[in-house]
Design goal:
The complex is a heterodimer. Chain A is α/β, with parallel strands linked by helices. Chain A is 49% helix and 15% strand. Chain A has one domain: Rossmann fold (3-Layer(aba) Sandwich). Chain A has helices spanning 19-28, 43-57, 74-85, 101-106, 108-136, 157-177, 209-222, 233-240, 245-252; strands at residues 10-14, 35-40, 60-65, 90-93, 139-144, 182-189, 226-229. Chain A has a seven-stranded parallel β-sheet, sandwiched between helices. In chain A, α1 (19-28) crosses α7, α3 (74-85) runs parallel beside α5 and α5 packs parallel to α6 (157-177). The longest helix of chain A is centred in the middle third of the chain and has 29 residues, at 108-136. Chain A is globular and about 55 Å long. Chain B is an alpha+beta fold. Chain B folds into two domains: 66-180, Uridine Diphospho-n-acetylenolpyruvylglucosamine Reductase, domain 3 (2-Layer Sandwich); 184-417, Vanillyl-alcohol Oxidase, Chain A, domain 3. Chain B has 14 helices and 21 strands. In chain B, a hairpin with a 5-residue loop joins β5 (67-70) and β6. In chain B, α10 packs antiparallel against α11. The chains are: A alpha/beta, B alpha+beta. The complex binds flavin-adenine dinucleotide. Flavin-adenine dinucleotide is lined by residues 9, 41-48, 52-53, 63, 81, 103-105, 108-109, 111-113, 115-116, 118-120, 164-165, 169-170, 304, 404, 439 of chain B. Flavin-adenine dinucleotide binds at residues 9, 41-48, 52-53, 63, 81, 103-105, 108-109, 111-113, 115-116, 118-120, 164-165, 169-170, 304, 404, 439 of chain B.
């Protein structure tokens, strides 16, 4: 359950190795937390992360195999989770890959991978989690989208499109969940300096996993629908999204 | 049936469920005959602060009812569980009777009062309400409608007293009332400049009075830490009123003067500055020492009820009422807790200190001999941490927290504080093996 001080007892992180996801856990796992589940493909790497998390937070941390692209398994995955751990109080959807645009251009299978990992897989899982939470009549969902979902650019067109799909799905889910007792927040960070973006030139208004985590924590206490990190990006993108294409291209070059 | 979103009095974690208003045994049995995985639970007036009276995704049973009979010689009242103490007092006070235990609000139901085994300012003398219940009518999952008394089924009886609605739905109770001569209270007030003096005064004078409680200030620290105002009271005798100044109104009148409107509830009105100002004012306006003041029952027992929906003043995030008890020989924990809270500087002005008498027989009843401190703390970002710290202090001292107030404690703290938890669990699995009765509290604390 969620406690009256806004802490969560059972937390699941989809994309259990995600740097931002783990930063969010670092913020959201409190002494009230009893169980954390890391859902990821690489369970060996997950085990190390789990040990570290267990040592720093002193709660039960488990790693459960989950592959976003196995679309037909998500339903069963959630059912098994309920049997093992009971209600999901907080679910964080942080699964995703950046993909390589050149490779995507050359190989349609690479596009399929990105769409499955970032869009279809997470969306199907969100749907399964939301359905469970509807039955529980409580629960919080955090969906990590991106500003890349707002306007497509050449450099990461496939990534942007996959995030746009997820973002739109999450918005729809938000509407579906209205007044159900379940709340969903969409987080749109700008360029996050971290492992995933290593070697890329940083964009303006860039942020860190820790800042994203802080923003997520605050949003969980206040329940807004969409959170931009940093907050100013809301206004920056209000302008960017309506720029004429020739100017947009020059801006993002 | 209606779809509702309800929360505790602290307004912290609203939960959606379906509410069934039931007027009789049949309708309750109908509801619990078809309960899915999400469980069912009785709900009274929702005056528990945390998540005790909600079951998200499940079925809530609300009860309507009436006062069935009052024996004018023995003072035993038979009353439906859905009746509030407010309604009961309006009926019995004019007839010269009073409830044996009343909480700080009269807007609680008899069912809620029994399920939480409530205590009042007279605990050191009269115990908690469980001691005054002669028998209960209860609907359990396995046996349906049963009448239980301490003699007929002590296990089930004492698992239900303080059992937070988890053994079944209490339908009605036989309660022994106490006789009163007048509807007035004779009150002695003393103000003390620090916690040690305050506690000493309570230790030395509690036994002289039926009712005793102290208000404590957490907005000051250092040598003034825990300064406060202690009040003692007794039901006034009619001789006392005749010789007193003039004739007082002898009628029982309890009214709500004002109700906080809903729109106020979106922002927090209670802030550090006004909590400090209020505390200063409250302390200074109390007499250094005054005896034999006559007060009405509402003024003495239910002062907060003069303002309806005052919980909205804590804003959208709500507040936690943290109440713990520690054994008599650990008054130091009270002092440490006050110091911790004073250091955090929350917007907190409502704190109550009281000394309990011996524990009753309820397996999950809160009161035990010792000191109990209650604080109203608005939810802010640091509150979770402060409460975890207080929980540790209480656990280490062999104390416990009050389930009717709780919304954020942990299974460990509760199992450490309630040594009879396993005994209670075995009764529960006898009368409800499939776990039909659940609450968000029982889920959170793994009761
Ligand atoms: C201002 C204020 C002051 C208070 N002061 C005190 C005090 O001095 N001492 C004290 O002990 N408490 C105090 N309380 C707490 C209050 O007395 C308890 O929480 C009480 O249980 C509330 O009764 P309710 O009818 O509102 O029950 P609810 O809050 O609706 O329910 C409380 C519990 O009782 C169960 N329950 C309710 N009805 C039934 C039923 N018919 N059968 C089985 N279970 C049932 C519920 O399932 C739940 O677990 C105070 C509360 C407030 C708001």
């Amino acid at each position: 359950m969620k406690t009256s001080t806004g802490e969560f007892q059972t937390i699941v992180l989809f994309g259990g190795l995600s740097e931002i996801g783990l930063a969010i856990l670092d913020r959201c796992v409190t002494p009230a937390t009893t169980t954390v589940v890391l859902a990821c493909r690489n369970v060996d790497a997950g085990a190390d992360v789990a040990t570290a998390l267990h040592n720093s937070k002193n709660c039960d941390v488990q790693v459960v195999y989950w592959d976003a692209s196995h679309l037909k398994d998500h339903d069963r995955w959630v059912a098994q989770f309920m049997t093992d751990h009971g209600d999901i109080d907080l679910a964080v959807m942080a699964a995703g890959v950046l993909g390589d645009q050149d490779q995507c251009d050359a190989d349609p299978n690479a596009v399929a991978d990105v769409l499955l990992s970032n869009s279809a897989g997470p969306s199907v899982m969100l749907s399964a989690v939301a359905q469970q939470m509807r039955v529980q009549a409580h629960g919080r969902i955090v969906v990590l989208s991106s500003v890349a979902a707002i306007r497509m650019r050449a450099a990461n067109a496939t990534y942007g499109a996959s995030k746009a799909g997820l973002d739109a799905f999450a918005q729809g889910l938000q509407e579906r969940l209205h007044a159900s007792g379940v709340e969903l927040v969409i987080v749109r960070p700008g360029f996050v300096r971290g492992r995933m973006t290593q070697g890329l030139p940083p964009a303006p208004f860039s942020t860190t996993p820790e800042h994203v985590a802080d923003a997520v924590w605050r949003s969980l206490q206040a329940a807004p629908a969409v959170v931009w990190v940093p907050g100013i990006l809301r206004w920056v993108f209000a302008v960017l999204r309506i720029l004429p294409s020739p100017i947009w291209r020059r801006v993002v070059k | 049936m209606s779809d509702v979103i309800v929360a505790g009095w602290g307004r912290t974690n609203p939960a959606r469920s379906s509410l069934y208003e039931c007027a009789n045994q049949q309708s309750v049995e109908l509801v619990i005959s078809d309960v899915g995985e999400r469980g069912a639970l009785a709900r009274g007036l929702g005056r528990s602060y945390g998540d005790a009276a909600q079951v998200s995704g499940g079925k809530l049973v609300g009860l309507t009812g009436r006062i069935i009979s009052l024996d004018p010689t023995s003072g035993v009242v038979i009353v439906d569980a859905g009746v509030s103490i407010d309604e009961l007092l309006r009926y019995i006070v004019p007839k010269g009777w009073f409830v044996p235990v009343t909480p700080g609000t009269r807007y609680v139901t008899i069912g809620g009062a029994i399920a939480a085994d409530i205590h009042g300012k007279n605990h050191h003398r009269d115990g908690s309400i469980g001691a005054w219940i002669e028998s209960l009518n209860l609907i359990t999952a396995v046996d349906g409608f049963v009448t239980v008394s301490p003699a007929s089924d002590p296990q089930l009886f004492w698992a239900t007293i303080g059992g937070m609605g988890l053994t079944g739905v209490i339908m009605s109770a036989r309660i022994k009332l106490i006789p009163i001569d007048t509807p007035l209270m004779e009150v002695t007030t003393q103000r003390h400049n620090n916690i040690d003096d305050l506690m000493e005064a309570m230790v030395s004078k509690d036994s002289d009075h039926r009712y005793s409680v102290a208000w404590v200030d957490t907005t000051v620290s250092g040598s003034r830490l825990g300064r406060g105002v202690v009040t003692w009271g007794d039901h006034a005798s009619s001789e006392r009123i005749r010789v007193g100044r003039g004739r007082r109104v002898r009628k029982y009148k309890a009214s709500q003067r004002f109700s906080v409107p809903e729109f106020i509830g979106s922002r927090r009105t209670i802030r550090r500055w006004n909590a400090v100002a209020f505390s200063e004012f409250w302390f200074r306006s109390a007499p250094h020492s005054r005896a034999d003041e006559l007060q009405s029952i509402p003024k003495f027992f239910h002062p907060l009820d003069a303002v309806g929906n005052w919980n909205r003043l804590y804003g959208r995030r709500g507040f936690v009422q943290y109440q713990f008890v520690v054994p008599d020989d650990r008054p130091d924990v009270v002092v440490t807790a006050l110091r911790c809270v004073a250091r955090e500087r929350p917007a907190d002005f409502l704190n109550v200190l009281k000394r309990f008498g011996d524990a009753g027989d309820g397996m999950l009843s809160f009161p035990m001999r010792g000191w109990t401190l209650t604080m109203d703390l608005p939810v802010t970002d640091g509150l979770g941490q402060l409460i975890h710290h207080l929980d540790e202090l209480v656990m280490e001292a062999g104390g416990r927290i009050y389930l009717a107030k709780d919304g954020c404690s942990s299974p460990q703290v509760v199992s450490a504080g309630y040594p009879r938890l396993n005994e209670w669990r075995s009764v529960r699995s006898r009368v409800d093996p499939d776990g039909i009765f659940q609450s968000d509290l029982s889920r959170r604390l793994e009761l």
